[in-house]
Specification:
Layout (H helix, E strand, L loop, with lengths): L5 E11 L4 E6 L12 E6 L10 E2 L3 E2 L10 E2 L1 E2 L5 E12 L2 E6 L4 H7 L2 E6 L10 E2 L1 H4 L3 E4 L3 E10 L6 E6 L2 E6 L5 E5 L4 E4 L8
Parallel strand pairs: 12-17
Antiparallel strand pairs: 1-2, 1-7, 1-10, 2-9, 3-8, 3-10, 4-6, 5-11, 8-9, 12-13, 13-14, 14-15, 16-17
């Protein structure tokens, strides 16, 4: 993932009123992402997705049991596939947010429906200690304390109780629950997660 990576924080679902307000389905829990004065990139959905899967904010926090995930970001490496705008106003809406962008009137707004909203990596909200973005965990090695190397994290599945890392090694996939009793250590510098899998979880 390059330093210029962009993260999707929402999608334009429609327009509102005559001034050009955009209806936004937000993927972010943080209101800071949509603060007036911030710059965002609007790009057509699906352009150069890095992993092809959603990545989640607050993926794993060591002092939690089951991890509740509500923020989704997908990552890209291309900043030339859209246009940058400055947020002028933001307001709550029943199904998300309303955004007014500088230079965007009703006619322009209608042409933007379906676009995704992206921000650079350095504009993402800061996380608490021992909390990680999903994208930082995708691709790192997973090592079981007893069995050794299992594979690398390919993507994440949301479930009703806790989320699950899909760890791939050639043609084998292992499902690793994102809970503190299983995930013992995350070392992003080494690119490694150490786990203690319950009996019978590995084939």
């Amino acid at each position: 993932m390059g330093e210029n990576s962009l993260f999707t924080i929402g999608k334009i679902t429609g327009v509102h009123g005559v001034k050009g307000y955009l209806k936004i389905r937000s993927f972010s829990d943080s209101p800071e992402s949509f603060k007036p004065g911030n710059s965002i990139l609007l790009a057509r959905s699906g352009i150069k997705a890095v992993s092809g899967t959603s990545v989640r904010q607050d993926a794993f926090k060591k002092d939690k049991g089951a991890i509740s995930i509500s923020s989704a970001y997908s990552a890209r490496d291309d900043s030339k596939a859209g246009k940058w705008y400055e947020i002028e106003r933001v307001a709550p809406n029943k199904k998300g947010l309303l955004l007014l962008l500088k230079g965007v009137d009703r006619n322009i707004a209608e042409s933007l429906v379906g676009d995704e909203l992206l921000i650079p990596r350095d504009a993402l909200p800061s996380l608490e200690d021992d909390t990680y973005y999903w994208q930082d965990l995708i691709g790192i090695s997973v090592v079981d304390i007893q069995a050794g190397y299992i594979g690398t994290i390919d993507h994440v599945i949301q479930t009703g109780s806790n989320d699950v890392f899909v760890v791939a090694d050639h043609n084998r996939e292992t499902l690793v629950p994102a809970i503190k009793n299983v995930v013992k250590q995350v070392d992003l510098e080494r690119g490694e997660m150490r786990v203690e899998l319950p009996d019978g979880l590995m084939e």
